[in-house]
């Protein structure tokens, strides 16, 4: 039984070695080589799916670049190939490109309005990804861990970078040309040198992003939403350099781990926003613009300038930092405080009523005075009529007494 066991183990070892040899034999290196106009290039150009299949069945690692001819239309699927050291260039009429077995890639450069799908399901390492002029692009690379740079522009439909951990240079996602909203979720991203994400965003998720930006003032973290307001939540962000810019439709800002930074903080919101950053202790320049309704920087101590320019009403007295230990320039401005329109209407109505009533009363008083004066004049005229031309009373009311009047002429008439 012991000898049988030893023989079985030996046989299995031989099978294992043979299997390894088979793998080594199957793993073949290929070198891209094309001659164009008498010049040799390290590139293999393909013009049909049949060419791809013939090439890939005997090659697992390609040293050089891959290109696709303009007459290659539809979908391109490159099976069996696991490593490409160079650049894959897609500038043709392809609508879909798939590398189902690829593990590492030097770079992908695509500029085509027809391209709809890029599928790299097993890819773990890539230097550069650059896709421009996309139309409803669905880009899937769920297992890539690290990249030097990723740049996607155009109309983006869906993205899948589920395990992306680090982008050493630029992470640029711009879907602003698409009216339809799209979601950006980078659940594993922890570090990126320069991040810019913009477009009609339905949601944004960067739960683990801790470091963004480099020492350059041009780098940093920029988020811009051209659609309906969303929450810009960066719960793990603790280190940012350059500029932290949050722009567009913002429902709320959440930066609980950001305590001290040398970066500028710029917020420009198109929707009413209460900026609540009670944990921030120090920053360089802070600028809040747009529809800022209020601000809370209760722990802020260090800054070079703090500026609020709101296009709606804001209480500057409670929104400016009050806990600072180092003097920095502060300024705040906003729209006029809104008034109560209903109360104003009531006041105007009461004023008009009182004014009209007072006017009528004044007219009545004037008429009454005029009529009273008229009566007094009438009475005075009647009294004068009862007197003789000598100013003597003709007779008393008590009795009739005869009075002899001297026969004298009346005095001469005079105006005076």
From TrEMBL:
The chain crosses the membrane at residues 346-370. Keywords: Membrane, Signal, Transmembrane, Transmembrane helix. Residues 1-27 form the signal peptide. The keyword Transmembrane applies. It comes from the Eukaryota. This is GPI-anchored cell wall organization protein Ecm33.
């Amino acid at each position: 039984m012991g000898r049988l066991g030893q023989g079985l183990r030996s046989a299995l070892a031989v099978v294992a070695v043979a299997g390894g040899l088979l793998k080594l034999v199957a793993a073949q290196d290929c070198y891209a080589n094309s001659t164009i106009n008498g010049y040799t290039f390290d590139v293999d150009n393909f013009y049909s799916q049949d060419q791809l299949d013939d090439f890939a069945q005997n090659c697992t690692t390609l040293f050089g670049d891959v290109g696709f001819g303009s007459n290659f239309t539809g979908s391109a699927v490159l099976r069996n190939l696991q490593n490409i050291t160079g650049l894959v260039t897609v500038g043709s009429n392809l609508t879909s490109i798939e590398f189902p077995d690829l593990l590492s890639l030097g770079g992908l450069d695509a500029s085509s309005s027809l391209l709809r799908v890029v599928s790299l399901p097993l890819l773990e390492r890539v230097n550069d990804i650059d896709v421009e002029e996309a139309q409803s692009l669905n880009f899937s690379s769920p297992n890539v861990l690290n990249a030097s740079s990723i740049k996607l522009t155009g109309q983006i439909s869906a993205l899948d970078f589920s395990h992306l951990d680090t982008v050493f240079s630029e992470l640029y996602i711009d879907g602003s040309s698409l009216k339809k909203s799209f979601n950006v979720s980078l659940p594993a991203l922890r570090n990126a040198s320069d991040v810019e994400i913009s477009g009609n965003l339905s949601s944004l998720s960067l739960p683990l992003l801790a470091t963004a930006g480099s020492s350059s003032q041009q780098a940093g973290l920029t988020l811009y939403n051209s659609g309906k307001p969303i929450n810009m939540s960066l719960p793990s962000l603790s280190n940012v350099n350059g500029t932290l810019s949050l722009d567009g439709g913002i429902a709320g800002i959440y930066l609980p781990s950001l305590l001290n930074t040398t970066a500028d903080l710029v917020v420009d919101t198109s929707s009413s926003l209460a900026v609540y950053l009670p944990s921030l202790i120090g920053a360089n320049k802070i600028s809040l613009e747009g529809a800022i309704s209020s601000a809370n920087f209760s722990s802020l101590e260090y800054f070079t300038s703090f500026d609020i320019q709101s296009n709606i009403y804001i209480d500057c007295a409670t929104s400016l930092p009050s806990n600072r230990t180092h003097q920095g320039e502060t300024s705040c401005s906003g729209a006029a405080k809104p008034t109560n329109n209903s109360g104003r209407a009531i006041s105007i109505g009461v004023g008009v009523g009182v004014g009209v009533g007072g006017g009528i009363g004044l007219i009545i008083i004037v008429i009454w005075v005029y009529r009273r004066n008229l009566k007094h004049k009438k009475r005075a005229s009647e009294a004068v009529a009862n007197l003789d031309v000598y100013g003597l009373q003709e007779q008393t009311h008590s009795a009739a007494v005869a009075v002899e009047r001297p026969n004298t002429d009346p005095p001469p008439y005079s105006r005076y």
